[in-house]
Amino acid sequence: MKTWLLSLAYLGTQMTIAAADGVPRINSGSLCRARSADDRLMKLPEAQSVADCIQDEKNSKDKLGTTWPAAAGSVRARCRADAVALGTLSYVDLLSCLQLAEDINATSSATKASTTSGKR
């Protein structure tokens, strides 16, 4: 029995690693309904309707379909880990994280290029 459970745990780990290369699967409907419920629980005005939230998540997932595979594995891993640690895993957050990483990389590259060209 212990061997079976250990095998099952190992298999689950392998499937998680294999799936980690693709865009993470997120249940946007549940996420959006939970956010709306949190707003109601805290007696706050709903920040966004559930339908609008789901549409934003769908749009972000579509954009991630092209940007996620092109991003460096370390950036994808960091974005995923940050979102999971904060408890905010959503397609919008993942897309924002990738876009910020691209901006930082572009700024860093431009700074290095201008510094290097000025050393002649």
What does this structure look like?
With 120 residues, this protein is mostly helical. It has one domain. It has 5 helices and no strands. Helix 2 packs across helix 3 and helix 4 crosses helix 5. The protein is elongated. The N and C termini lie far apart (70 Å). The relative contact order is 0.10.
Q: Shape from CA axes?
A: elongated
Euclidean distance between termini CA atoms: 70 Å
- Mean of all residue-level pLDDT scores: 80
What is the domain tally?
Answer: 1
Strand content: under 5%
Element pattern in H and E: HHHHH
Structural class comes to: mainly alpha
Task: Give the low-confidence spans.
Answer: 1-19
- The number of helices is 5
Q: How can the largest sheet be summarized? A: none
What is the rounded Rg?
19 Å
Strand element count: 0
Helix content: over 70%
Short description:
78% of the residues lie in helices and 0% in strands. It has 120 residues and is mainly alpha-helical.
Task: Summarize the SSE layout with pairings.
Blueprint: H1 2-19, H2 28-41, H3 50-70, H4 73-86, H5 91-117
Keywords:
single chain; 120 residues; mainly alpha; 5 helices; elongated; disordered N terminus
